[in-house]
Design brief:
This protein is 5% helix and 49% strand.
Amino acid sequence: MNHFCRATIPMIFLVAAQLTSAQTKNAPGKALNIRKATHAIVLDGKIDELDWQQADVATDFFLNYPVDNAPPTFQSEARVTFDDRALYVSFVCYDDQKPNVVQSLRRDFDFSTNDHMGVYFGPYNDGINGFFFGISPEGVQREGTVAGAGADENGYNSTWDNKWFSEVTKYPDKWVAELMIPFKSFRYKTDAREWNITFLRSDLKRNQRSSWIATPIQFIAASFAYAGKLVWQDPPPQQSINVSLIPFVAGSTAADRTTDPTTKTNAIEYGADAKVAITPSLNLDLTVNPDFSQVEVDAQVINLTRFEFQFPERRQFFLENSDLFDRMGFPSARPFFSRRIGLAADSNRASPSLQRVPIEFGARLSGSINKNWRVSLLHMQTKEKLSIGLPTQNFTVAAIQRNFWKQSNVQFSLVNKESLGVTSLSDSTRFFTRDLYQRKQNPDGSFSKVLNVFNRTATVDIEMRSADNRWYSSLYYGLSLDNFNTDQNQTGGGFAQYTKRNFQMFFGHVFNQKNYNAEVGFVPSQRVYPGWSNSFVSFFGTLYPKNSPIATMGPSLDLNINNIPSGLMTDKTAALGYRVNFLNTATANISYNYTFQELTNSFNPVGEQSLMAFQAGEVYTWHNYTVGFRSDQRRLLRYALGSTLGGFYNGTNTNINGEVSYRYQPYGSISVRFDYNDLNLAEGYGKQRLFLLSPRFDLTFTRSIFFTTFIQYNSLRDNINLNARFQWRYKPASDFFIVYTENYLPSTFGSKNYSLVFKLTYWLNL
């Protein structure tokens, strides 16, 4: 052996040992001690206090993406301390002089398109639930809840809002952030001396994602399976009184020009929300006469399927601990969907749309009883709204969850909807039978829209996840009760998922009997199939090219089969695709899609009465291709383009969709979203060109003053919608809103209706 080899081999082993040590040192469960501060922490974006200097440091971050076997280009540090009032977190993010990527100054920025640093912690120490707080280099805040161990993207809800404080200071070689999170702003267990905790940094300008705990690339770095332990050397404070009162006053003026004469209304409303900490980990939320007029408008879609489209919940009252309700059942059969409360479809309108149903009051008790038990109890009552055929209705939802193993649980849930003052079928007919989410089966097998006196569902769910997130499985069983259906009212299913570095497999089965009726839930096929079962299989492969502009790539395969109780196969779909993720943050995908349908109901995708409908019993088979490309997300000008070309029932459809956005960093952006369908069906069925065009102007003058104008032209609805929203966050979690909405006829730009609303809220801690 020559001298070079004798010198090189030990060096190779030394480098390998250092790399292995770095990964092992920050393994899951690594301890980070937290001590009570001995002096006041000044929130100034500097960490020169003695308590910061003496605090344990979370450092030696490791990459999770685009590779998971190296440290990031620039390291990060995190420290924690506390006093009787708040939890304090500091970040030191080393960097060079390259400009950071920040889309705007708007709160709750998007994770994937901004440079930022965040803390993710589980104060119940159950490995399943928690909170996150993040900050951008421009000092923009982001917070939310963690559910399902944070093992998938659906486990993070950034719509949740609360009161906390932060400051950022920039230096030539780093940016430093200090966070003060009041203990009153989140739930925790005072007897838990260890919390799950980790820190995650997104350095988008280098397309790097790094975390304190080394996490394999196939898993989310913020998940609690790959978290450390926050060890309390001094106990967290016991809290006696923790009450927040959030009153509001709102005024509105509106006009509906589709009536003759024009209907005009003016109103002043008052109401309040309250948060009462029964214990530090169990919270009571109360609301009286709530108003949700400031909630951002839904982004419209052109839906050419037979199924209802699900829009997300954005109302704050429903969000904290919402996972106990949201994860009941499976996506194809959710027994509870909070948007069923306070929103209902008005079938009087030519283009049915969701109308607000006034809520009189509501209460929700939710949180953790101890390490193993969580509960959530919701009770709300809506007012009568005869204009869309609804009586006064009462909603009660209850869930209790028992955790076991490290990341598993079993849950029992009940949902009850009661129509007050309706005791018989004759009573229900006076409400015009317009509640589109309820049904009665007739002797000939058809369905009528009839108002049930009551509707109830009971569900049991079991979720099991291995400690390393490799295995994940879920089972559920449920049944419904109402005053029309007494049998064939069950639902159930199960699936299993297995994830490795180079592939993920997912397979399962779910069924709905013909009379399963979850009126407060989301069952998109409820009015399409007279009972059904669905089997599904998915496979995703991942390759990691070396010395390539590609970060990851790989094939995918999805198979779905639907049957009805007679054994008839009604649907069969297959999709074979390939996706590519580039190192510059761009992505591309292509797929071949096959669809078979034997219809169980009649429908026309464009919904026009003058056109022929596809009839029940008819069989259709078609093929199409999908391609998509998303540009470098770090550029000031970015875009996403997609297209699906090929067959559609007895004709063809050419779809082109996408979004183009330009940002004026950091003060906002201008974007245009579009969806075009050139539908060419057989003679008599329809030949239409459908447009959805949505320009959006998003201006953030400061971190507390925002203005958004959102215009949506939908040719399928024959409508132009304008929504302009001004928000001034004059104090943390306290806002002043002005919202203007108007709908126009596209042909003449004549106004159909308009409304102007102002709302003032104030968050008061008692």
